[in-house]
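User: I'm writing a tutorial on reading structure tokens. Could you give me a worked example: one chain, its sequence, then its tokens, then a sentence or two explaining what the tokens reveal?
Assistant: Sure. Here is the example chain.
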Amino acid sequence: MNIILYRENGDDMAAHLQMMVEKTCQQENLELYSELEDLGRRLRQPLDSTETIAVLVPADGEQLAHVVSFAELLDTIRIILVLPDQSAATIAMGHRLRPRFLSYRKGDCGDVAAVLEKMIRLGIAGQDGKVGFLQRRRSRYR
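And here are its predicted structure tokens:
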């Protein structure tokens, strides 16, 4: 399982969340990105056959808009999105990514870690030869 974490450096809340993510996914391949350009480059690379989860923590609306510009590249990746605020415009923009779980910067990081842990557990269980997440998702849109 691949875990992609995007957060800006110097962001205390996101640093705390990163520690929780690292603790949650000790057995997984964790990729950390603090620059949007680096995240974009990574998303343009082909994904291997392993399932991928992205935990995205934009610091503000401008970063969120930039992340939303990657929506097509994130289409086959399960997303946990931590929004910078709870305004209607921000929530609407965040939903364009179709996240599996949506949280807010002022919320509890524990819920994000708990959801990530469950997604990892379910993803690993689905790698036993049965129809996996990506196959189910793609078949839904055909």
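What the tokens reveal: The mean pLDDT is 85. The first strand starts at residue 2 and ends at 7.
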